[in-house]
Each structure stands twice: as structure tokens, then as C-alpha cells.
Design a protein that fits this description.
With 193 residues, the chain is α+β, with helices and mostly antiparallel strands. 47% of the residues lie in helices and 9% in strands.
Length: 193
């Protein structure tokens, strides 16, 4: 659910989705967290069971664990939240054992691990709507595992947007990792490189 909200934020630019994602993630951290850093499939305050279920392997669909890593890492990339990034790293540590023993059952977890190793890339495209901004957006959205935000100048309602503006009146793309950005570029070919 949280990852869906974060995808909606990236697709629409509507910052309201960020708050929805935070609420879901914070509830999961408070009620579903396991002692080893992973997550259970039921909340601690749910009906008492002999054992709390916990599926860690990916199959035709991602496990809850893998989905949580992606959601936590994406939220951290958009907000700079160390709490959420730390939770993603701890959950990956739990999934590492499965990835070593049976990698075919850890595909989504391994994709999350690669994204975490890469940062993940945080790409902000800022500028007035038009062909120049569209060209930058097109290149940015092709980056596998990247968190991409496209916005008009002057927005600061998502932490990743703070301080990002056009360059010399032209739409600009900022490629960042952990909120540390390279020099902004205004040309799609530069962004591709």
C-alpha cells in the first residue's frame, strides 16, 4: 500500500500521497516489526496465533518483506528519513540469508538490495511543463530503480524538492544519492550520460 502511494506521488507529483505512505510505513514499523529487523505478516495486536506468520520468500509476487524494503527505501529517498532507510537495511539483512541460499526466491529482495546499493538514485526534474522538461523526464523515468519526481519550480512540499530549481530559466534535472546531488543538467543527452 505504501509503495502504491509513493508511486502515485512520483506519477502525479501530488505531495498528499507522501503523507499517506508515511502513515502506512510508520504503522508497519510500530505493529508488524520483528525482533530481527524484518516484518511479520500480522500485527502484534492482532488475534493471538500459535505463531505469527512471516513469509520471506518472493514467488510469483513479492513477499511482504521485499515490498517493505522497496517502500522504506523509496520513502527514505524522497524524504531523507534515516529511520526508514535504517529499517530497510535491517530488513535486507534478514533477507540476505535467503538470497544466498535460494536466490530464485529472492528476486524482488535482490532488486531492492541493488537499489539500496545504488543509493537509490533520486532524480528531480524541475521546470515549467513543455518539451524540454518532457525530454528530461523521459530519460529520468528510464533509469531502473530510480526515484523520480517532476515538479514546477519553487515547490518544497516534498523534502527532495527543497532547493531544486531551474538553471538559467531552463528545466533542470538533479541526480542525487542520499540527498547529495551532482551538478544539475539541462540537456537530456547530458542526463543520459
Amino acid at each position: 500500500m505504501a509503495l502504491g502511494f509513493l508511486d502515485l506521488l512520483q506519477a502525479t507529483g501530488d505531495a498528499a500521497w507522501l503523507e499517506h505512505a508515511r502513515q502506512v510505513l510508520d504503522d508497519a514499523l510500530a505493529r508488524f516489526r520483528a525482533d530481527d529487523g524484518g516484518f511479520h505478516d500480522t500485527a502484534f495486536d492482532a488475534e493471538a496465533l500459535v505463531a505469527r506468520p512471516r513469509e520471506i520468500s518472493d514467488n510469483a509476487s513479492p513477499s511482504g518483506q521485499s515490498a517493505m524494503v522497496h517502500a522504506l527505501a523509496t520513502y527514505a529517498a524522497l524524504t531523507g528519513s534515516g529511520i526508514h532507510r535504517d529499517a530497510a537495511e535491517k530488513t535486507l539483512a534478514v533477507l540476505a540469508r535467503l538470497a544466498e541460499r535460494a536466490p530464485r526466491f529472492a528476486g524482488h529482495a535482490l532488486a531492492a538490495a541493488e537499489a539500496m546499493l545504488e543509493g537509490p538514485e533520486e532524480i528531480v526534474v524541475v521546470g515549467a511543463p513543455g518539451p524540454a522538461r518532457d525530454a528530461l523526464e523521459d530519460v529520468a523515468r528510464r533509469r531502473p530503480g530510480a526515484v523520480v519526481l517532476v515538479a514546477e519550480p519553487g515547490r518544497d512540499d516534498v523534502p527532495l524538492l527543497v532547493g531544486r530549481d531551474e538553471v538559467d530559466g531552463l528545466p533542470a534535472a538533479y541526480v542525487c544519492r542520499n540527498f547529495v546531488c551532482e551538478r544539475p543538467v539541462t540537456d537530456a543527452a547530458q542526463l543520459s550520460r
